[in-house]
Amino acid sequence: MDEIYFFAPTKIYFRRNGIENYLPLVKNYGKKVLIVSGKNFIYKSGLFEKIKNIFEKEKIDFSIFSNVKPEPDVENVEEGTEFCEKENCDLIVAIGGGSALDVGKCIALRVKNQGNLRDYFGEANLKNQPLPIIAVPTTCGTGSEVTRYAVIIDEKEKTKKTVASEKIIPVLAILDPDVLDFLPPKLIGATGMDAFSHSVESYLATTSDYMSKLFAIESLKLLYENLKRAVEGDKQAKEKIFLASTFAGYAINRTGTIIVHGIGYSLTIKYGIHHGTANALFLPYILEFMKENKYEKEIEELENIICRTSELKNFIIKLGLPIKLREIGAKQQDIEELVELSIKGCERAMKRMKFNLTKQDFYRIINHAY
Ligand SMILES: [Fe+2]
Fold this sequence. Notes:
Elements: E1 11-14, H1 18-22, E2 32-38, H2 41-44, H3 47-57, E3 61-68, H4 74-86, E4 91-96, H5 98-112, E5 122-123, E6 133-137, E7 149-154, E8 159-164, E9 172-175, H6 185-204, H7 210-231, H8 235-255, H9 259-271, H10 275-292, H11 296-305, H12 309-318, H13 335-345, H14 359-369
Parallel strand pairs: 1-9, 2-3, 2-4, 4-6, 5-8, 6-9
Antiparallel strand pairs: 7-8
Helix pairs in contact: 4-5, 6-7, 6-8, 6-10, 7-8, 9-10, 9-13, 10-11, 10-12, 10-14, 13-14
Bound molecules: fe (ii) ion (FE2).
The site of fe (ii) ion has 4 residues, from helix 6.
């Protein structure tokens, strides 16, 4: 058997009412909390009120940085870092989707390590241990609550970049499925498809091993069986996809993602398309391409777990997500730029592929999706 590596230091609590029950634990990790979140969901959902009450009751001092952008960039992280320093916070409670969790991780890193976030892209060489990070995900896709990654837009280079370090893995994650009650169906589908992509890509990555596949397979089974029902509002199905997204997080924590994410980034950079929606749109075309190019055996294994690649589009359509570039308003003349952005987005991913895609390959996939 091939070598296995597994490192999962996050203490996980998964239950309804989990926030009331487990958020008080944050006092074990520091003196003053910085809540890191976006500016809408936390207030509209009533989550902020709930958290404020818990912190007041437990006499936990806190500040809030609720300025995380939907697609955060380096500047956004640096702004949060300054705020954290000004407020003298010594632990991070990141609440939200992948953006809030990843910005929380980067603030934790930057407060303790000099320079600029750009100095830490790639495998980050961190002199100092970041602040403790507590993750409270409110979407069912990111998996960031258990991973060593934070993905941030480098606005200078017009691409998404990853900070990778085991030192930014959250110490504690509270998975409270109640939060999904406030998530619009479209975002359940989109973030669920992000998790779906994580598991598919992890399974196909050359870095996968027995344990990462275990998580990828279980996550795919849960997602394939439950995602549509979750989008329709079924509470038990939502619980299952919430768990599936964490399982997918364990899978990519070992392997990283491959070209679905790398190509998907192009739509987020060019049109601001939601990350999960972008991945879902390209996924069927990329799997078709890979099946014809050196991945026949692996794709067949995946088809035995989920469905035939040709049926995948139908599954995605039923979630209310687009599966053609035209549907999101892309123009034929944009394809050249999407190819360039995809090549840039796939730089890291290419190391986990059996072969290097040529520019022509990117054209083929993107044209096909058009
Ligand atoms: Fe993702």
